[in-house]
Write a structure and sequence with these properties.
The chain has about 80 residues and is an all-alpha fold. It has 1 helix and no strands. The mean pLDDT is about 85. Keywords: Membrane, Transmembrane, Transmembrane helix.
């Protein structure tokens, strides 16, 4: 036996409530996605800053060692 639906169509106020709840759920989903993206971006920026600092320190050390080598052995020592 087929099922028949006896429910009437929602009125204007029910449609507004449904639309509001759907919009609210979508905004909560977008907020969660944005927070996740912000967390990952912060991690990437932190790693980039760490790598940059390490590279700059290493470059300074290499430059200092080359200068000391130059002063110890003259321009032909390089």
């Amino acid at each position: 036996m087929p099922t028949t639906w006896s429910r009437t169509a929602p009125d204007g106020e029910e449609l507004i409530d449904l639309a509001y709840e759907a919009a609210k759920a979508k905004l909560e989903s977008q907020t969660s996605a944005f927070e996740s993206l912000r967390t990952r971006a912060s991690g990437v920026i932190a790693v980039a800053a760490l790598v940059t600092s390490f590279s700059a320190g290493l470059g300074s050390l290499v430059n200092l060692l080359r200068k000391e080598e130059f002063f110890l052995h003259g321009p032909h020592g390089l």
